[in-house]
Amino acid sequence: MLQAIDTLQRRRSKAAMTAQGRIEAGIDNAIPIGGGTWRFSASRPLRLDSGATLAPLEIAYKTYGTLNEARSNAVLVCHALTGDQHLASTHPVTGKPGWWDRFVGPGKPLDPERHYIICSNVIGGCMGTTGPASIDPATGEPYGLKFPVITIADMVRAQAMLIEDLGIETLFAAVGGSMGGMQVLQWAADYPDKLFSAVVIAAAARHSAQNIAFHEVGRQAIMADPNWCGGAYLQAGVRPEKGLAVARMAAHITYLSEAALQRKFGRELQRDGLSWGFDDDFQVESYLRHQGTSFVDRFDANSYLYITRALDYFDLAARHGGVLAEAFVNARNVKFCVLSFSSDWLYPTPESRDIVRALNGAGCRASFAEIQTDKGHDAFFLDEPLLDQTLKGFLAARAQARGLA
Amino acid sequence: MTTIREDFAEILKLVRPNARVLDIGCEDGVLLELLTREKNVDGQGLEISPEGVAACLARGLAVVQGDGDRDLDHFPTRAFDYAILSKTLQQMREPRHVLSELLRVADQAVVSVPNFGHWKVRWALLSRGRMPETGALPEPWYSTPNIHLCTLRDFVGLCDALELRIDACASLADGKPARPIDPRAPIENWRAETALFLLSRKAEPQPAAVPQQNLFGEVELPKAEPAKKRKR
User: Fold this and answer.
1) What's the pLDDT tens digit per position in B154-186?
2) Strands A335-341, A365-371: parallel, antiparallel or unpaired by DSSP?
3) Of A102, A277, A333, B55, which residue has the fewest beta carbons closer than 10 angstroms?
4) Is A280 a catalytic residue?
5) A372 to chain B: closest CA residue
6) What pLDDT sits at residue B222?
7) What is the CA angle A71-A76-A81, rounded to 5?
8) Is the CB of residue B67 less than 8 Å away from at least one CB of chain A?
């Protein structure tokens, strides 16, 4: 009740300030945004599952909000395959709003007025964290294919190092969709004592044959581009843009659904009449081409190879004797919220059910909901009122349990 | 304080503090919230509707979207002290399987069923020759979710067939206090509108689960009957 009044008052004061023109719409002006690049000394390498080490390690990250005195309000948001740390602030390359802008902000499920929200670029990424485009200290040149193969667990190990250095002992929550959700599961398996709650959206505990197959198509498209140069394109001063664009186009189809494509484009033409050639006659073609070409501006082809590989290698149960529940036996104090989308065919609902079943089997308390939508896998970026409502409820209840205002 | 549904009040009495509780068909989570608040239970809900799931989450409850017919199989054996199935057994596709699953995942089951042998039901059939619409069974035949209705005697028969022990039984009716009954007494098959059962596996030794303040726990079921009967 008090909380409700508090929120109401805050809303009112916000409205008043807006009226006076002191706060513009948009999160950038209203809340403290921090972050930058965290550089670990060479004496603190990142140990990788492959046996290799990565040093010196750099992690690019963003924070929204303020860490409270008890250091109990930190939320780690784990991004998806092509995401980055620019969660809720303008992307420096594209100039577009943050990828989860609609989810992070005052009054939204992740609220910088209450939570200290951290989002870091995964290792292998290309937005500032050490990845294949970074300079290999051994050669003074970009790593390229000399970059070691990484796993989801490696990404999480790096995040745990960052969280520790930020002075946070326990995360109030780890939240992620798609590959982000896999990282959250890995957090629960590897660092259950550092986790108070976990939100896993549209994810799976392992990559299916179909998932691997689609990724292989993407990787082959990149490697078939002559400008890929065996991975050493940066040294050659070129970029395998065509291959990367095709990889993105193929992948993008898996993020949508048949129904959503039909609703959005149907057989609508781009121009009057057919070209009787191979121009982008259909709107859906034009849309995909746009997705491909705009993607290459902000993403590195080798990063795409490494991160898709990390996803393919992901099989949480495999390290626990093939029994997924075993991965969660130490996470009984973590409360989980698992969500799936009915039209997601990339990580369909049964994958989430498997996770929930394993959590139940491990004696963990888990909530699970399948959200009805025709928007496919990407629904977690989009306007889904039930998603907001569900997560708001879950996080509010967890906040109460943790004594957060 | 808002009034508590009669069957919820009874369940509240049955469940011992700090127990692990699975509520199947928990709807918007009112019962689980009540149990959490009053008995500090470690609760888990199972609910089919997305709205119900969202409401449960808003109450801070752990809830899994799923249905009792299929998803009980996924819970490990004896993961709970109580499995609660309130007024939905007759809506299940396989009540027999569900009942047996309840007592696999939990040590005790709290189950309530509307009694199709109730006199109003029999009277509706006898006098009008039509499917009854009563307080416990309000929907017409074509839109009722109830697909496996049974009489009190039928239900007791199923418990016997599954070798379940009836630890307690109470008759519930709208607006009236619950009344402990002997579910095997023929008269109850006429007059109990809805019956609430506390069940356990026969093979198990008597658990110390029935709490002291339990309405039925200290009362020998058959003996309790005559006195109550006369009052009514």
Assistant:
1) 999 999 999 999 999 999 987 788 899 999 999
2) parallel
3) A277
4) no
5) B50
6) 42
7) 165
8) no
Nearest CA of chain A to the CA of B51: how many Å? 8
Total residue length of chain B:
232
Between B220 and A61, residue with greater pLDDT: A61
Class of domain B6-231: alpha beta
Residue at A244 is within a domain? no
pTM summary value: 0.85
Smallest CA-to-CA distance from B178 within B3, B9, B1 is with B9
Assess if residue A26 is contained within a domain.
no
Any CB–CB contact under 8 A between A214 and chain B? Answer: no
User: How far off is chain B from A370, nearest CA to CA, in Å?
Assistant: 7
Domain count, chain A: 1
Percentage of residues of chain B with pLDDT beyond 90: 64
Q: Is residue A235 part of a domain?
A: no
Question: Is A102 a domain residue?
Answer: yes
Q: Which of A324, A357, A371, A386 to mutate to test the interface with B (most CBs of B within 10 A)?
A: A357
Distance, CA of A79 to CA of A298 (rounded, Å) = 15
Report phi then psi at A55, rounded to 5. Answer: -155, 145
Q: What residues in chain A have per-residue pLDDT under 70?
A: 1-30, 405
Residues 6+ apart with CB under 8 A from A147: A124, A131, A132, A134, A136, A302, A306
Query: Could you confirm whether A272 is annotated as catalytic?
Result: no
Per DSSP, A148 falls in state P
